[in-house]
Design brief:
The structure holds two protein chains of two kinds.
Chain A (H helix, E strand, L loop, with lengths): L1 H11 L2 H17 L6 E4 L2 E4 H8 L1 H17 L6 H18 L6 H28 L4 H20 L9 H7 L9 H19 L2 H10 L1 H6 L4 H27 L11 H11 L11 H20 L7 H16 L1 H20 L4 H11 L1
Antiparallel strand pairs in A: 1-2
Helix pairs in contact in A: 2-14, 4-9, 4-10, 4-12, 4-13, 4-14, 5-6, 5-7, 5-12, 6-7, 6-12, 8-12, 10-12, 13-14, 16-17
Chain B lengths: L14 H23 L1 H4 L2 H26 L7 H18 L4 H25 L4 H19 L4 E2 L3 H8 L2 E9 L5 E6 L1 H19 L1 H11 L1 H6 L4 H27 L1 E2 L7 H11 L13 H18 L4 H32 L14
Antiparallel strand pairs in B: 1-4, 2-3
The chains are: A mainly alpha, B mainly alpha.
Chain lengths: 362, 358
């Protein structure tokens, strides 16, 4: 029985993002019953749901990294879009300059190099945050301001085009596999992260550091190392996201690639029931949060909201959601629920006593 | 071992003062460097005043954000609110139904509305400030694009007169090549900046509210135990920030004279950078309000310097990023040295990591 209770409380933070997802699906179904319709084009699935999964792939990957950074460092990395732009610029340059036919090997080496670039960027941010004790948002502000220019300088010109068969397949569909490649890559990434979190002590360490760095230190965990590590992971995440984004687009647009995605990623972390003040975290929540955001964007488009007003709707949605999820409102709702339960439990015959009980509870 | 009572706090500089002094020194060094390397442009007083003339709105935004940052919060909606106000005021003035005063009222109203919303949601419903102000930013941006997409030039005569109005300083100026004396010019927006800086500095230094903001930013729980109304303090700090953003929007319109979608974009990031340069930490509880204008001046001087040096436009962002990096590292090293000095003798080494406020 206590075991069941802990499991329920473990899942309670997923209640919010999941219920929002359900509401969005209902809204979409009201708009048109063909929401779940999947069509097969050239042997691959297309439709509202696959497109949503396809569109959210970078956001999901970035929100995973953001969750770890938030949990350990109690702050957010706002340079993820820029670091994705830089690492993917390096990837594009490697592929373009490799010479000869672009083989799978070229792409793979380019990808690994871009991951390395991501790690270097993560190390830059991580050093500032962990060893110089700078607040994460300020530390990453530096790259946020200068990152796109670095990407542009690496590019050397406006948006180099990535025209080869393999990139195209990574960005869209591999013949013979019915699911779009970015979805598969995202799934693989999620599985890798899940395995790492299951097999290593990363989760424990990150949560310990996030809850109390001094206590973590007394217990033999070096908080600086852990925070540094989360920034390295964030760097890899942004490199992977940049890789997917650039292959999707087919060209490297250093100005608009992954622009302002950090806002969505932070939002995904918060929607997933994670505290932005660090501590315990839930990757699952963030992933669902990321898909929720993508779905919200697509739902607004599907409802034919004026494109100028989309941001207004999004803002209202976020505010309503955060009000519903806020601790004060939750507590109040709990009280009301208790009252109602008290009324039901006491039964109609003891109506007055039930009411007084509820009042006492207040 | 000295008894506790005799350690005088007056002899020790607080972190706020230290960071403020560093910011001041950096600004003086920066400007001195600019004077030496580009005497042609920086030697003129007008260049110095132009920093204020053209960026009055940024100064004001930074002031409002500073109050929130000292209180341990963050408001990233300020830039978008500023942009929204410029467009709304421009539309009001262009529609012919309202004059300057009603536009000013509208600006204050919009700012106040955003401030009240943020303050209520953050202070009383305990929602994370980043997310709420992010939503506020989306809201302001969305409203801005819904109102009007194209740039809107204000042609109302009274407003144009206000826009072109300048105050000349007769005893300060430069003599041009033909030998004609050109007095320095100041825009009315600069006066707003000066008034607000004095007002806010007094508010933060000597008022009960200002001290409460420092206490709340330093440690919320201790502030609560001292009997400070934490929620009210946070609420008021966001209201002030919103109001300031509204004022800055009006001043922005006074400077440029046109409502535009791009108005005030990235102001929030610039304001955060300026505050950090001015020695106001995001953690809260540390910082001198006068650091905000000094940080802004440093930021603007750097930009002017880079422009004067004729650096390629792409390198400009990188160079200013690098300079920001240097400042941040410098600040953190100084703070770390200070903290370690304070604790090495009396306490075991692991306590060095404890962050101290003041």
């Amino acid at each position: 029985m206590p075991r069941l209770k802990t499991r329920v409380s473990n899942l309670s933070h997923l209640f919010l993002p999941l219920s929002v997802l359900v509401i969005l699906i209902i809204v979409n179904l009201v708009k048109g019953a063909d929401y779940f319709k999947i069509t097969v084009v050239n042997g691959a699935f297309y439709g509202n749901i696959p497109n949503m999964l396809f569109g959210a792939s970078e956001l999901v990957i970035l929100s995973i990294g953001m969750t770890l950074v938030t949990a350990a460092s109690r702050g957010q990395d706002i340079s993820i879009g820029e670091s994705g732009a830089i690492s993917s610029a390096i990837f594009v340059q490697y592929v373009l300059r490799a010479g000869g036919d672009v083989t799978l090997w070229t792409i793979l080496v380019g990808f690994l190099i871009s991951c390395l670039a991501g790690i270097v960027i993560g190390a830059f941010n991580g050093t500032l945050v962990s060893f110089f004790n700078v607040q994460p948002m300020v530390a990453t502000l530096i790259l946020f301001l200068g990152g796109r220019s670095i990407a542009f300088i690496i590019d050397g010109k406006v948006s180099p085009i990535l025209a080869n068969e393999i990139s195209n397949r990574i960005g869209t569909v591999i013949p013979g596999i019915p699911i779009q490649t970015p979805i598969i890559l995202t799934a693989v990434f999620i599985v890798i992260v899940a395995v790492v979190l299951k097999t290593t002590n990363l989760r424990l360490y990150v949560e310990t550091v996030g809850i109390n760095p001094n206590a973590a230190r007394l217990n033999g965990i070096n908080p600086k190392k852990i925070i540094f590590l989360t920034f390295l992971i964030m760097g890899v995440c942004s490199a992977v996201a940049g890789f997917i984004a650039v292959n999707k687009a087919g060209r490297h647009d250093s100005v608009n690639l992954l622009k302002f995605i950090m806002m969505d990623a932070i939002l995904a972390v918060a929607l997933g029931g994670n505290s932005l003040g660090g501590g315990k975290f839930s990757i699952t929540g963030s992933i669902i949060g990321a898909y929720t955001i993508e779905m919200l964007n697509r739902t607004l488009l599907r409802l034919e909201v004026n494109p100028e007003a989309i941001k207004v709707f999004k803002a209202v949605f976020i505010i309503v959601l955060m009000i519903v999820a806020s601790p004060v409102v939750r507590e109040y709702a709990k009280k009301v629920l208790d009252k109602v339960q008290g009324l039901i439990a006491s039964g109609p015959s003891h109506h007055t006593s039930g009411l007084s009980q509820g009042e006492r509870g207040e | 071992m000295r008894p506790l009572g005799t350690t005088k706090t007056q002899t020790r500089m607080s972190n706020s003062t230290l960071l403020f002094i560093i910011a001041g020194i950096i600004f003086v060094l920066m400007y001195g460097f600019a004077l030496i390397s580009y005497p042609g442009s920086f030697m003129q007083f007008q260049t110095f005043f132009d920093l204020f003339n053209f960026n009055a709105a940024l100064f004001i935004v930074t002031l409002g954000l500073c109050v929130v940052m000292i209180g341990g919060g963050i408001d990233i909606s300020v830039g978008a609110v500023c942009g929204l106000v410029t467009m709304a005021c421009a539309m009001l003035l262009e529609s012919g139904t309202g004059g300057i005063w009603s536009a000013l009222l509208l600006a204050l109203g919009i700012g106040l509305a955003f401030g009240l919303m943020h303050g209520f949601l953050i202070a009383y419903l305990e929602i994370q400030p980043f997310i709420i102000t992010l939503a506020g930013m989306f809201l302001a941006q969305g409203l801005l694009t819904t109102l009007h997409r194209e740039p809107l030039n204000v042609t109302q005569p009274a407003f144009v007169a206000l826009r072109n109005f300048t105050i000349e300083i007769p005893w300060l100026g430069t003599v041009n090549r033909r030998g004609i004396f050109i007095p320095c010019e100041i825009k009315p927006g600069v006066l707003v900046v000066v008034v607000l800086v004095i007002l806010y500095a007094v508010l933060m230094k000597w008022s009960r509210f200002g001290r409460s903001v420092y206490a709340v930013g330093g440690d919320r729980e201790s502030a609560r135990m001292l009997g400070i109304n934490v929620k009210k303090t946070i609420f008021l700090s966001y209201v002030i920030c919103g109001l300031t953003a509204g004022i800055s929007g009006f001043v922005f319109l006074m400077t440029t004279g046109a409502g535009n979608i791009g108005n005030g974009s990235l102001f929030e990031m610039k304001a955060i950078a300026a505050n950090v340069m001015g020695g106001i930490l995001l953690n809260g509880g540390v910082g001198n309000l006068l650091g905000a204008p000094i940080g802004t001046m440093t930021l603007l001087t750097i930009n002017e310097l880079i422009r004067a040096a004729g650096v390629q436009s792409n390198l400009q962002a990188i160079v200013s990023g690098l300079l920001l990096y240097l400042f941040i590292v410098l600040q953190s090293i100084i703070i770390a040295l200070r903290t370690s000095k304070r604790f090495t003798l009396a306490l075991p080494s692991w306590l060095k990591f404890q962050r101290t406020h003041d």
